[in-house]
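Methods: holo model generation. Sequences were used as deposited, without trimming of termini or removal of tags, and paired with ligand SMILES retrieved from the corresponding compound records. Each pair was processed once, and we did not select among multiple samples. The sequence and zinc ion SMILES for this entry were:
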Amino acid sequence: MPTKPVNRIGEIYGNLTVIRISNRRSAGGNAYWWCKCKCGKEREVASDSLSNKPRKKKNITECKDCAKKLVRKALYKKHSQEENLRRKEAISNRQLLKEKVPEEWLRLPLTDAHARELNKKHFFRGRVCINGHLSPYRINGGCLECSKQFQSNDYLLNEAADTRNKHATSNMNQTQRKGNACKS
Ligand SMILES: [Zn+2]
Ligand SMILES: [Zn+2]
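and the model returned the structure below.
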């Protein structure tokens, strides 16, 4: 028989207050506790996740919904910090490119997100693409110079494929005809 767990009702961990014991036990016999979050929702938490000391395994300090919200908030913060860095970098890159690139490039939005904010299709970060082009980018589309080249390559490839298909079809017809000839 596992020993009776110490009563933890009333203890506070972050946004959680322990309100009652659960019937659930861990494989090792440790208790689970029902806790009430500040938002009003309840969460069942293993007793070893209820601690105010930093540990290797993360302590639980809010209900599942609040935990998800916190993750989203942290992610949003991280993304906006990254975006600010990108914009700063674009500004300094573009300063160095004055009179070296078309004026209108320097009037484009700074980044993909900036272009979306302004409802524009193109932006210019003042950086070269992986193929070495210094060119504006299209939102979702990448480097304009690359896509120009890709489109013309695509056209050539399509032409080649069309020719191949025509050959294939005429070969097939010949084979079919031969096959039919054998059958008859
Ligand atoms: Zn909550
Ligand atoms: Zn490119």
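The pocket of zinc ion (ligand 1) is lined by residues 37, 39, 41, 62-63, 65-66 (CB under 6 Å).
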